[in-house]
Amino acid sequence: MKIISDKAEALRKLQEKARAGGGDERVKARAKTGKFSARQRIEHLLDEDSFEEIDLLRKTRAREFGLADRDIPADGVVTGLGKIRGRSVAVYSQDFTVLGGSLGLAHAEKICKIMDLADKTGVPVIGLSDSGGARIQEGVDALGGYAEIFWRNVQSSGRIPQISAILGPCAGGAVYSPAMTDFVFMVRGESHMFITGPEVVRAATGEECDFDELGGSDAHASKSGVCHFVANSEQQCFRMIRELLDYLPQNYRELPRVKANSDDPKRESETLDRISRRAARHAFDTLEVIREIGDGANFLEVHQDWARNILCGFIRLEGRTVGVVANNSKVLSGALDIQASEKAARFVRFCDAFSVPLLTLVDVPGYWPGREQEHRGIIRRGAKLLYAYCEATVPKVTVILRKAYGGAYDVMSSKHVRGDFNYAWPCAEIAVMGPEGAVNILFAKEIKKAADHEKRRRELVDEYTKQFANPYLAAQRGYIDEVIEARKTRPKLIRAFAFLRNKKADIPRKKHGNIPL
After folding, report:
1. Which of 189, 407, 437, 450 is flagged as catalytic?
2. pLDDT digit string, tens, across residues 275-299
3. Are 197 and 288 in a shared domain?
């Protein structure tokens, strides 16, 4: 019995040493900066007492450059399984107190093992990144380790949700794994992502920039679009991850779970009536429309600070998750540009991959014009959203709130790209272009001949508006299934999505399409 007891005690000591990371002093030093340790982060993210660690005693086999004499507890990364709100997840958390969280081969193999388990069992995987990058001492083995992770990111894409939280530095090749995951979280003042750091940028280009300006959370949330959610603290970041997962399924074979809901499915909205009456002359707050439609006025917005002319995010209708794409007429009049097209396309493809129905709220005057947009590739990059909607087979319901002009009408989940139910408010305007532009082209000679050019132009605009700038011609053609009172939008959508719940779509047999990247 004593032999067994001694062995158990030896095991406990090994475990304690591995769990200590870089030691108390380094952990305390990081705590003073407001950062949690790698293990504390997992504790805050997961349900209490749900974490089961894997590969605690794993260590590098590399011996060069002094590694043989270094103690590298858990090889600088904590990996395992746990639960969030009762549902299983896989998680890894890099430990900056151990060799700066640098990634060597064993470190990468631990992450790969947990990713493989997540994919096999159909559970989300969450990576908490805090690393100085590749472990220089391990050379090409470290680079190969990164590539193994990248390969798994791609294989799991569309199969299980992948979430990245950047909780420190993330530089060089390390940024590509988060970039290929579904959602990226960053913490203001703490997170940094970049291919090359400020010093390299200065040496190569002469540009002066600091860490935040180059790769901080605000830069990636508002300019590059790499970051989907920004938190003000690590605690808030973990709460946001938990909230997001609540809207998502465990994997592509399952549906998001239904939440208890007390909001009346038959609730009508005076607010939407008021908005529709003013819509012909005034831009309106599309966020207000979304919240009026969803259960409990809740809307989890994705990419809140990037490409504000289009809004993407999640609501619930009768407790069921619905993805929302909506033009925001308060920014660029809701027009589609390069960034808005790419933002919405990625969101549409995520929803389609994970069986999340799509609601599209349309108020679009067209594509944003200009030489810069054309030269930067609005044709190719704008086509991404069209491709995404055409490719999507989940239930698709569209409501034209106000403007739907030109090719952008087609793109925004129109009947022609296989919207299942397409509705319009009475104030909707569906045409090749706005009345003013159309009249200037169609009646240019007549206006020029008139004694009072401006008066005749206004008369023609009014006539054109009455005849064409409305939803009724499209309804006569069957392109709009029903013109609905704005106040009845919520109950109408709930019934539509309920009817579509068992929708099945035949997908053409092929390896994959070739989206215009």
Report:
1. 407
2. 999 876 778 999 999 999 999 999 9
3. no
